[in-house]
Design brief:
8% strand, alpha+beta, 4-stranded mixed β-sheet, 4 strands, Glutaredoxin
Length: 213
């Protein structure tokens, strides 16, 4: 059985978890936090989560794990079969991560862990995210899913990237980034109706409540 090492607070753990659920793959979630302990670095050389334990060894990096699951468990397909469309899906995933979520994460410590607010970040992050949102608006279809009528990994990736970024930026700037992307509300409604989303989000919200109580 596959073992998913991570915590429900982690949006990247939740991306892998939702893919596993959607594919109907049996797995066990093993509670693990980012760590530089030698024992954990054997499994995850960067000390990051999630880490997927497979019969052949351990895998890190969410995109690589999602690709592995697609190769080993191809049904149901979570990427388009057309090569260009598949590349476009990965393109949108990278844009959502690198130019929206990663930018927003500069405020993560101040938002959830009592860290000091960086004035540089306050000035720089919002314009960076606005540029990323503009790119998503150009690239996505939202009919109702990111690339049209078919659901896949790009939807899981965008959903959890935006969900974290949205929470951070709402608390930081009182700014709901989803309103900046036409059609995103329709996409969110479609995602929220999926059983896999409900399961993963419920576990995440329980973990979040314990963190900020």
């Amino acid at each position: 059985m596959l073992k998913l090492h991570g915590i429900s607070l982690s949006n990247y753990t939740n991306m892998v978890k939702q893919c596993l659920i959607e594919k109907g793959i049996e797995f066990e979630q093993v509670d693990a936090r980012p760590s530089q302990d030698d024992d954990f670095l054997i499994k995850s050389p960067m000390g990051k989560i999630p880490c997927l334990e497979t019969p052949d060894g351990f895998l890190i990096e969410t995109a690589a794990i999602l690709d592995y699951l697609e190769d080993v468990y191809p049904t149901p397909a979570m990427y388009p079969t057309d090569a260009f469309a598949k590349a476009k899906a990965r393109e949108i995933m990278h844009v959502a991560e690198l130019y929206i979520e990663v930018a927003a994460r500069r405020h993560l410590g101040a938002t959830f862990f009592g860290g000091e607010r960086s004035e540089d970040a306050m000035t720089e992050v919002r314009p960076q995210v606005e540029k990323g949102l503009h790119a998503v608006t150009q690239l996505a279809d939202f009919g109702p899913y990111v690339m049209g009528s078919d659901f896949g990994n790009v939807d899981i990736f965008v959903y959890h990237s935006f969900r974290l970024a949205r929470m951070i930026l709402k608390r930081t700037y009182d700014w709901d980034i989803t309103s900046a992307v036409p059609g995103f509300d329709t996409y969110l409604a479609a995602m929220d109706e999926r059983d896999s989303t409900k399961s993963v989000v419920a576990e995440n919200e329980k973990a979040m409540a314990a963190l900020i109580k």
